């Protein structure tokens, strides 16, 4: 409680004085100092995001509300994105009294930060929409994704039918995988499919680990559980480090799939290293894994990469 009070006093009273002093001595507003002084990627974008959210300017507050509405409704795309970014930058130039002819580099850096900040918010909306989409066995597109998942994970084996115990070979609980997608909807399937197609060799190695006689687990069920973890990290902002350091343009659903694939790849390695006695240790190991991931994401320089091979067990 005491720490919160100190922070509130600093944010409300001391911070504006410090900003005023630095503006007078450097001739630059806080946003300019961030864009010129902070390392590109997560450090710069997070600092810009914090500065904007702490602003008391009525115009800036209204701008944030407008950008939130645009991204929440997934209208931050294409030509609309360019016009919105241009208008947002011009608003800040006017409010902060920044000369665009002199500070053209600021415009480039600041625009990039805005694209990432509200692209991230839009990504949450896009991911949530997929999660709310129920897997429909009567939908030919949903079914084709399911068959494609099998084909990439088990290329040597042909499915005997749509309803079959073979689905258990890739870690579904029963004879019909649709029942396992209830919690994460179509998002769970699309995550699994992306991992199996875009990182096919690592995914097949991970699948082979799931068949281990001592350390085995249900590949698909664990994968859907990790979809839930990835979504939680996206919602609470922990995944910003990954997105801000990885995205070169407007963050897309592909970036979330890449984040998920990294989590699955690393969880498998962590699971094997833990040498669990049985599947009953899953909850504990999963929680430890989440703590490790959160710790890594606290480093603003963090970048995730998936290797091309997985060691045999």
Automatic annotation (TrEMBL):
Q: Which GO terms describe its molecular function?
A: GTPase activator activity
Transmembrane stretches, start-end: none
Where the record annotates domain ELMO, the positions are: 141-297
Q: Could you tell me which Pfam families the record lists for this protein?
A: ELMO_CED12 (PF04727)
Name-wise, this protein is: ELMO domain-containing protein
Q: What is the lineage of its organism?
A: Eukaryota, Metazoa, Ecdysozoa, Arthropoda, Hexapoda
